[in-house]
Amino acid sequence: MSHTTHQKKKLIARVSRLKGQLEAVERALEIERPCGEILQLLASIRGALNGLTGEVLDDHLHEHVLHAADEKARAEAVEEISEVLRTYIR
Amino acid sequence: MSHTTHQKKKLIARVSRLKGQLEAVERALEIERPCGEILQLLASIRGALNGLTGEVLDDHLHEHVLHAADEKARAEAVEEISEVLRTYIR
Amino acid sequence: MSHTTHQKKKLIARVSRLKGQLEAVERALEIERPCGEILQLLASIRGALNGLTGEVLDDHLHEHVLHAADEKARAEAVEEISEVLRTYIR
Amino acid sequence: MSHTTHQKKKLIARVSRLKGQLEAVERALEIERPCGEILQLLASIRGALNGLTGEVLDDHLHEHVLHAADEKARAEAVEEISEVLRTYIR
């Protein structure tokens, strides 16, 4: 990933927030919070994870597909996208 | 979509099969088949719909992104992909 | 599915609408509409299909889980739900 | 969540593994690993998160729906499931 320093920091900050959200699930399990609450925490983690994934996919589409160094690199980046999408849309 | 005639026929055949699967759900509801059976029919329709969507996305990536007429067309095709993905990965 | 006649009609009407949406995709493919348009049609079909599935799951939870005839029937209905969910959340 | 100590430990162990997987993404972003690799790490986190969610849903269905203390508690547990499912199947 050859992102700008700014993008990189933004993505890493999102991963940190996700870790914080997982720690909240850990604590909720420890102190035996209601299932419904834990399911809602998990649903919001899923939303945050999908948001992060969308961001990385977008960066990938713009940097490695749209602004690819050459046709070979572009073809490889398209294959990578295609493979990843198959795991999301199945 | 500027697909080859072959690809076009293949995609239309998939849509026809999906319609057939929906008719099976219609009949199952009519004759009041068990819920579990209807839920399984719906799950397999979802799989078939996702398979079709993956196919169209792949065609799009190859024909309009990889083999775009020019940079402007490629940028537009990338935006279209990006928008669609946001509705799937959210 | 032992739904009321009203619920049954509502569900069948949703399936009919879905068939209509698939026919729109068929026509769009036939006359070679842009990929982006076809992908948007497919995304809205997915939304409608998920809405229908949510409806059937809800009916199932209320009629066969909550108001089960007996404990054995309830246990079976819970297993059915559990299996279906595994295909959606994986 | 009134899980047995065994179940609770198992779920917490899964959350710990997920945190470890997120730390791998953090490192991969730091040392600028290829996008495709990061997307694959994110896809496997999504799989693990969905696995954990499926586990919690299953526990919920069995403990709070199937073996509910009374009808009122069961009705509430069914509503919770119904709400959570709407965020997954939409």
Topology diagram in text:
4 copies of one chain form a homotetramer.
Chain A: H1 5-30, H2 35-66, H3 71-88
Task: Give an overview of the whole structure.
The structure is a homotetramer of 90-residue chains. With 90 residues, chain A is mainly alpha-helical. Chain A has a single domain, classed as Methane Monooxygenase Hydroxylase, Chain G, domain 1 (Up-down Bundle). Helix content of chain A is 84%, strand content 0%. Chain A has 3 helices and no strands. Chain A has helices spanning 5-30, 35-66, 71-88. In chain A, helix 1 (5-30) runs antiparallel to helix 2 (35-66) and helix 2 runs antiparallel to helix 3. The longest helix of chain A is centred in the middle third of the chain and has 32 residues, at 35-66. The radius of gyration of chain A is 17 Å and the shape is elongated. The mean pLDDT of chain A is 93. Chains in contact: A-B, A-D, B-C, C-D. Chains B and C meet through helix 1, helix 2 and helix 3 of B and helix 1, helix 2 and helix 3 of C. Chains A, B, C, D: Belongs to the FrmR/RcnR family. Chains A, B, C, D: This is Regulator protein that represses frmRAB operon. Chains A, B, C, D: GO terms for molecular function: DNA binding; metal ion binding. Chains A, B, C, D: Pfam families: Trns_repr_metal (PF02583).
What structural keywords apply?
homotetramer, 90 residues, mainly alpha, Methane Monooxygenase Hydroxylase, Chain G, domain 1, elongated
The quaternary structure here is homotetramer
Q: Provide the CATH architecture of chain A.
A: Up-down Bundle
CATH class of chain A: Mainly Alpha
Radius of gyration of chain A: 17 Å
Domain unit count of chain A: 1
- Give the chain pair forming the largest contact, with residue counts: B-C, 46 and 44 residues
